[in-house]
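Continuing from the previous page...

OK, I double-checked the sequence for Iron complex outermembrane recepter protein against my notes and this is the correct one:
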Amino acid sequence: MGGLIFMDFISQFLMNIFRYLILLAAFSIFSDRAQAQDKALTGNIYDSQTKQALAGVSIKNSAGQVLAESDQYGHFSFQYNDNGLISFVLVGFKTQVLKSASREGNINIQMDADESNLNEVRVTGFAGNRTKKETAGAIALITSADINRGSGLSFQQALNAVPGVRMDQSTLSEARISIRGNGVRSSYGLRNIKVYLNDIPVTEADGTTRIEALDVNSIGRAEVIKGPASSIYGAGTGGVINFQLQRSPYQEQSFEASALAGSYGLHRLAAAYRSGGDQINSYVSYGWQEYDGYRAHSNDMRRFLSGNFQLFPSNKRIITLLLNRTTQYSQIPGSLTADQVAADPKQANASNLDKQAGRYQTWTRVGLGQQYRFSNQFSNSTSVFTYSYDLNHPLPYAYLRNFYQSYGGRTRFTYDPEFSALPTQFIVGAEFNQGLTKGTQYVNNHGTEGALTANIDYHNTLYSLFYQSETRLGTQTLLTLGLSYNSLKYDVSNYLLPAQSGIKDFKPQATPRIALSHHFSEVLSLHASVSSGFSPPSSSEVKNVDGSINPNLQAEKALNYEVNAKGNLFHSRLSYDLSVFKMDMKAELIGQSVQQGITIYNNAGKTTHDGAELALSWQVLKPEDDHVIASLRPFVALTYSDFKFKDYKILNAVGAVTATYDGNKLTGVSPWVLSAGLDMETRFGLYVYLNYYYNDKTPLNDSNGNYNKSYGVAGTKAGYKRKLGRSFELNVYGGIDNVFNESYSSILSLNAVGYGGAQPAYFNPSPKRNGYAGLSLKYLL
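Thanks. Re-ran it with the corrected sequence; updated structure tokens here:
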């Protein structure tokens, strides 16, 4: 019944859009017949993905004359008497051409970022509205073009092209993301990293994140902040990933249908509706995909429905609405020992097969946001959300059923007092997230529920207050100061064992950040920063061996020192981004496996994370060159990690030290990682993408007694885009992953224990050579 009401709402919403467009078209026809005269054109210019106002946009007529320029708030106004085309030009963005220059009144121009020079693209990291080159700190930008360099079913290829970021995924049912080593030892999902979607937290109140609910194809871009960002985003020592759903290209109204098929039973069908108008920008997509999987018992089925709406009711207000519902049915094949991989890498773990391990769940997310400018000096951005899922989760050691419901919001006020000396912008805000997990656990009888063994509710509350100021010390020098105050509380109710109920209220954390930036020239912008962060244990990690709350467990803490250099060379055709950092972690959570399915944690570790990251991108051809090849771009991302245990002790259930691993290499982190590629696009529609990923050998356990071998994986994709007449656009493509048929495991079960003298099951074999092919057809209304 709820689904029918939801679909009826979408239907009525789209019908209203169609009516609006029909009226707009009729008005345009009438206006074209009116007598030519001086007309006033006013409006605002925004980044189509981030909704940030764009200053300094040159507005030109068909003769190339500059008519006006947008002010610091993105506003413009001018008179004209020419019915020719009007162009909006800004470095770092694709030139936007107004299709109907005879329009009058207030319009809202939406410009798309130019991926050819990412250093000049505006980013919102640390609440700024500056180019990537101007922003202090290590921030990477991923666009939809990066995601679609492969099959588009996973973020793995795009994220692994960012130095310092690693996404491990061998099947579609399991994924793990780490940033600078943080999160790599997570037993499930993501830890130590905050994830947002359209400024709405995807990360749950206890700090864990699962990204399976995100439809990869519906993502328009993502910003990755590397290192502690707690001063403005709350808990998290690894960093932040801000995803943005696609928004429709300005002035486009279209329907698109796409299909994809590939090896191991891969099928995907999807449809999208786009409407990019002055008063409303709408994007609605539906996707269905199924994948039998490379290994036995690894089938994965998804259903995605996403809606992203942006409304411009006035030149002071932008309203956004997010609707997302995802269904996942995934089998989990489990980890294998080295001998099992050698015998048959496609087999499933016997226990996982016997217990029919899998994850079956449905997510629903609704978010509403508003940006409002009270005046040129004072503005606010606020979003509220509700998020829920139900989980049916058979595991080798238990059968879990959970229901999760959360709600919360995030608000940020920006004030510029317009000081004549040392001009400063102030930001204050807050984030609140409250989640309730109702969890039951049963005996797993070969994939069906047996006797009830646990019935526990987790009521988690997180809030964060933050402050940031940006002060101009000179025309090219910027000082940033940030501070946040964060609190987290777990309220556990155990209905079968009331004595194990309790409250874990973590001591509030204050996390400061200071950054200094100086822009020398186009060739060099230099940044230095010191930031702190913290990451509390998740609700599943606060238990003692008997299931009671551990009152002594505290949050992990990090202190990060960083120097970052960014710039463009050879007339902006070669862009570089170099980071050198040192991060010290203390009070790290050390997991101790007591028995199968039971792990306890202690604050018994210190680690040092010293490293360097380099990203290079080179546009070989000049934009003005008239070649058959329109774009030729090689790129390289290189990561060096010298991560070690500094003071690292393994404690047993009673707190006694059983092993010391001081000086060992950090488990799961490779010293060297290289990602490289080449993009070629021609003027007649043919394109070719090549990519290569190398991962150095990796320690599999804290003792460094076992290693995963180094491996290199290559892939390629080629396609042809063409416009068919005036109303259709066709894209046909095909690709091969793991071209050289490498045997490797991307995701690893670190610190696996072999019970009863058995080998540890570390490995989740990744697919051998496999291919895919697809097409999309867009109809332009």
